[in-house]
Design brief:
Layout lengths: L7 H15 L4 E12 L5 E9 L2 E10 L1 H15 L8 E11 L3 E9 L1 H21 L17 E6 L4 H11 L8 E6 L7 H16 L11 E5 L14 H8 L5 E4 L8 H5 L2 E2 L3 H72 L2 H6 L4 E3 L17 E6 L2 E6 L10
Parallel strand pairs: 3-5, 6-7, 6-8, 8-9, 9-10
Antiparallel strand pairs: 1-2, 1-4, 2-3, 4-5, 11-12, 12-13
Helix pairs in contact: 2-3, 4-8, 5-6
């Protein structure tokens, strides 16, 4: 029995006719960019896809002809701050095309950049709300930076301009302060950025838990990237990365954007600065303030010691003056007493009495005679005058005692 059939070309032509009848006009399609490549001829080839929690559900090839790409690409980047790249969710105006030879494809005529920005902002707000609900937003603020954060675990790309700016600012600081930054390399942009930074943060903890000489203590973790396009930095609004930063046991300081950038990772960090150079200044300011505090403390100590020395010196001078005055008074008093005693002694000196015409009589034994009582004629006496002694014999005793 002969079977009815159509050849492949007829099938493809039927599919083409069906597609063209279903999509006679351009349509807006939401999709994720899973691959993008701009050719040297000016055309841009993309792979668009749709995924959900269970995985990839659909994908299709798309192209932007060079005549359109020259206009679409710079406008998209000016609005979103990022070029077309993998991982972006975009809203594209397409002509659905079916080729008998190449199958289904989309011809992109326009891209709505505002939609891509809006999608990222919506995801960002959901992340912030989730972190608030889980109580993670303020956890880093409860940690304390050391008085002088010295050993710093720096997470950045070694060739990043922001990292070089930070290191140059630290190493060439005019104060001569010494800080010990250690680099833990990581990807700082793109879809793999959050996982790479988380791995670097895990490496910091592993280094701290090492044994013996391999163990390192770090005072803080610094995440550095010197700004970039808005969508290039969208990875810093990633929930997983923000949650790890929020719950990290060390203070985490971020400097991942320019003045107009503020990311979820900045919100949960212990401190955030706009640029790596500003973060370097922040660290150096801590040292400068502590140096000024110690200098002030030194000045206060010197002044206190000087004042105490002056007071003690004044006290000693006063005490010396009092002691000297007391000694002088005591010496004068004793000198007066000695003079008086000397006068009295001199006044009581028998020689002085004898010089006034008196005489001193002693018996034969040298005993001073106070009167005639006990004397008899024939006793031998010695009479002492001021200028000599006379030995004599008693001839007669005449008493003048009226009793």
């Amino acid at each position: 029995m002969e079977k009815d059939f159509i050849d492949l070309l007829q099938l493809q032509q039927m599919l083409k006719a069906g597609v063209e009848s279903l999509f006679p006009n351009r349509v807006w399609v939401k999709a994720e960019v899973s691959a993008v490549k701009a050719r040297s001829g000016g055309h841009c080839y993309l792979e668009l896809s749709h995924s959900d929690q269970t995985g990839l559900k659909a994908k299709v090839s798309a192209i932007i002809w060079s005549s359109k790409y020259r206009l679409i690409a710079p406008y998209f980047e000016s609005v979103t701050g990022s070029p077309l790249q993998e991982g972006l969710v975009i809203l594209v105006n397409v002509q659905v095309n079916y080729s008998e030879l190449y199958g289904l494809s989309l011809i992109i005529n326009d891209i709505d950049p505002e939609y891509s920005v809006g999608v990222k902002e919506l995801e960002r707000q959901k992340t912030i709300e989730r972190l608030h609900k889980e109580g993670l937003m303020g956890m880093q603020k409860e940690l304390c930076l050391p008085v002088l954060p010295y050993r710093l675990a720096v997470i950045s790309a070694e060739d990043a301009a922001g990292y070089r700016d930070f290191m140059r600012h630290i190493e060439e600081n005019p104060y001569g302060f010494k800080v010990a930054p250690v680099l833990f390399p990581a990807l700082m942009q793109g879809a793999d950025c959050p996982a790479s930074i988380i791995a670097a943060m895990d490496a910091v903890l592993d280094a701290m838990q090492g044994e013996g000489a391999s163990a390192c203590e770090y005072d803080a973790v610094l995440i550095l990237r010197g700004g970039g396009a808005k969508l290039d930095l969208a990875c810093y609004d990633d929930y997983d990365l923000a949650a790890v930063i929020a719950q990290y046991p060390l203070p985490v300081l971020t400097a991942i954007g320019h003045d107009q950038d503020y990311h979820v990772c900045d919100m949960v960090a212990h401190e955030f600065l706009k640029t790596p150079t500003a973060l370097a200044d922040f660290i150096l300011d801590i040292y400068q303030q502590e140096d000024e505090r110690l200098s002030s403390f030194e000045t206060r100590i010197r002044l206190a010691v000087s004042n105490r020395f002056y007071r003690e010196e004044s006290l000693l001078d006063a005490l010396y003056a009092r002691i000297r005055g007391a000694f002088a008074l005591k010496i004068n008093t004793m000198e007066a007493a000695l003079n008086l005693l000397q006068t009295r002694i001199e006044a009581a000196d028998p020689r002085r009495i004898l010089e006034r015409g008196y005489a001193l009589a002693t018996d034969g034994n040298g005993v001073v005679l106070k009167g005639v009582s006990g004397l008899a004629a024939g006793d031998r006496l010695s009479v002492m005058f001021a200028d000599g002694t006379v030995d004599c014999t008693v001839n007669d005793v005449i008493s003048t005692d009226r009793n």
